[in-house]
Amino acid sequence: MKNETAMKNKRVLLGQWLKLRNRRSALFIVLSCISGVTVSCTSGERLDAADTEFGVVATGGGGSDRLSVSAVSASHDDGNVPQNTLDGSLATRWSALGHGQYITFDLGSSKVVGNIKVAWYKGNQRVADFKIRVGNSTASLTTVFDGSSSGNTLNLETYNFTDVEARYVRITGFGNTSNNWNSITEVELYGADGGGGGGYPSSLLDLSVWELTLPIPESYDPDNPKDVYQPELETYQHDTYFHLNDAATAVVFRAHAGGTTTPNSSYPRSELREMERGYSGTKPKASWSTNSGTHTMYIKQAITHLPDVKRHVVAGQIHDSSDDVIVFRLENKKLFLELDGKDGPTLTSNYNLGDVFEVKFVAHDGVIDVYYNDMNNVFWTYSASAANTSGCYFKAGCYTQSNPSRGDAPSAYGEVEIYDLWVSHQ
Question: Can you tell me the distance from the alpha carbon of 228 to that of 237, in angstroms, rounded to the nearest whole number?
Fold first, then answer.
C-alpha cells in the first residue's frame, strides 16, 4: 500500500462534519462557515437539512470543457434567486412556481455547448419535467432536450445533446411529480469554445466521489498501478484506458490482461473506487455498513469487449473491508451475480457485447437488493450472512478477470462503457 498523504484543502473539514448529517442545525452551521452561503427560506418551498446530502459541490477545476457563465436571470423567483445555481452549493437554489417558468444562462458570446449538468432540489424524492433550449438570441431558442430528471439523486445529473453553437442556455420547468414548483440547486455548462463538446469523462459522469485505478504502472512506484484522485481526476483522461467514446455518450474503461495489478489481485482493472464526498487526495475512503442506513449505486452501462481466452469481466461491485461481497460479472454470454466468490443468480444467459443495460445495488438492513433493467422492482435480494458486513464501498468500471497465466496475450483486454453512474447514502 502506498503512504497516504494528508489533505490540503477545506474539504477535509466538510467530510468530517458530513457525518453529522442527522444533526441538522450543526450541519447547516458548518456548511455556512465553509461555503460562505446564506440559506434563504423566505417564501415558497421550505429548505430542510434532510433534503441535502451535502452542502458544497465539487464543481471541478480548470478543464477547457467547462464553460463560464457571464450572467444568469430567470422569469421569476420566490426569493431563492437564479444566482444560487452558480454558487457551488447544494444548500441554495433557484425556485419559481408554475408551468413554464425558466432560468437563462448567458455565456457572454456564442460557444459550442455539448451538455449541461443540473442538480434538482429534492431530486431524490420527485421527478422534474423540463426542457433545455439554446440559441444566440433569447427571442429565438431551439429545444435540444425535452425530458425529466431521474428522481434518484440530489447530485448533478448530466443531460447530453448534439453540440450546438449558442450564447444562451435556458431551462424551462413544468413542475414535478409532487407539485408545480421548479427548483434547481446547481447548474454546470459544458462544451468547448469554437468546437467540440467537452473531452473529459467528468463532463459526463459525476466523479467527485471516486478515485480511479488504471492498469499501468505508477511513475514513482512501477510495482503498483496508477491511481488518480480528485482534484486531478476532474480534468483527467487516458486515450486508451479512460476516455469518452466517439459519440461522447459514455466513458470507456479498458484493462488489458498484461496490465499492472493491485497488491491483492492478479487481475488488471480500469475501475473507480468510492471515496467520501468532498474528498481530495488519498483520504478519506468511503467505508459504510450494510446494516446501517441505505446505500445505493446505479449504473447504466455496456460491456463492449472481452479477453480472447478467459472471456470474463467484472463490471460493478460492492467490496467490504476484506473482499468483494457481490459483483456484476460476464463470462462469455452469461451475465450474472457473483456472491462472495460463488456464482449467484443469472441476469441473462445470452448477453451480446455492446448491449446497454441498467443495474442497481441497494444495501440496507443487512441485505442487498439487486435491480436489473427494471429500476422499480427488485430482481433479487442477497440476504445471506455475507451480505451483512461493514467497511463497504462501491466500485464501477472494467475489472478484467484474466492475465497471461490464464492463456491470454498481454494485449488482450476487457472493456466497459458507462453511460450513467451515481451513488447515494441515506
Answer: 10
